[in-house]
């Protein structure tokens, strides 16, 4: 594998009309989850992702497994477990593309993960371990699994990529901050939103966030700013990259996961830090123009076309 990620996947119940959840009578079943979205994004962009997880031994779990495998994600380390139901969440989507999430992920199948599910040989051949703050927010046990995965990745020389992705519906800010601060010294690449940076470090000028995270030992810091683009630092140079304007904004969910996949895949392909920022911006802009958690994640050639690097013939 080029990159390994671990985390819970969910059935995403997508509303068939915009507006308040209570007024929507119909939903479409889709697959979602921050880490799964990231893995799918990487696969479409031409790098090899592996995913470590557990799914309920039910039809929803089998659907997610088949979907991930069909997208080119390695699922040899995903197992079905009895006694747990595959997690579900419902989406509320408004006319401006913003949304709310309503989670039903108690008793997550990932609680059945153990250290024996993390094989040294699987990590030994990879280059990056990507983790987010979503998985450890589900259960205390998952925090221990993330810490073990990080330790194993470090042992085998993998870079650690981390997106805080703070979900305050899942844990308190105090819990989130304590856990994130505990793993930041092991993080090589931090991919955070501006709002999350403020949550973790307090209100300060944008460039101070970069310096603040570097003080933890993070080598590469990226702050995602949505429509304002992204800013990043590799400890030597600060890069401020403008956003790539989307065709339209219809659904913002998954844009951050797409950005992460764009940035990591670009680095794995040998691109510079600045090139990776620009590429990731383009991926994020393409995700928001399509409804769904991962439906808008583009293929590599499509991003090249948006950046003017490749001409595509439509008809």
UniProtKB/TrEMBL annotation:
Gene3D superfamilies linked to this entry: 3.40.1190.20
Keyword Repeat: no
GO biological process terms on file: fructose metabolic process
Pfam hit, one: PfkB
Domain Carbohydrate kinase PfkB: residue ranges: 3-298
Secretion signal span: none
InterPro entries per record: Carboh/pur_kinase_PfkB_CS, PfkB_Carbo_kinase, PfkB_dom, Ribo/fructo_kinase, Ribokinase-like
Cross-referenced SUPFAM superfamilies: Ribokinase-like
Keyword Kinase in record: yes
Gene Ontology molecular function, alphabetical: fructokinase activity
Organism domain of life: Bacteria
Keywords on record: Kinase, Transferase
PANTHER family named among the record's database cross-references: CARBOHYDRATE KINASE PFKB DOMAIN-CONTAINING PROTEIN, HEXOKINASE FAMILY MEMBER
Family to which the UniProt record says this protein belongs: Belongs to the carbohydrate kinase PfkB family.
UniProt name for this protein: Sugar kinase
Organism from which the protein derives: Listeria grandensis
Phylogenetic placement of the source organism: Bacteria, Bacillati, Bacillota, Bacilli, Bacillales
